[in-house]
Predict the structure.
Amino acid sequence: MSVTEENLLSRITFSPEVLAGKPVIRGMRISVAMILELLAKGADMGEILEDYPDLELADIHAALLYAYRLVDGEAIFERARAS
């Protein structure tokens, strides 16, 4: 069964009462940023799911999709080259 992007992104929630409104997974105190940090530091998805048993694989995919959507929409500015 294929999960649509909208279904994945619906797992990302925002509430001023939870982590000051930062994007979190399904209202839990597990932030998108934390999941991305763990992945960036080399944790694999299996390790993350073991360490956070309330998470589902689709939650990790949702965090990645959310990050992709943010980066994809960024404006690109020419950066100065170092001399």
About this structure: The mean pLDDT is 90.
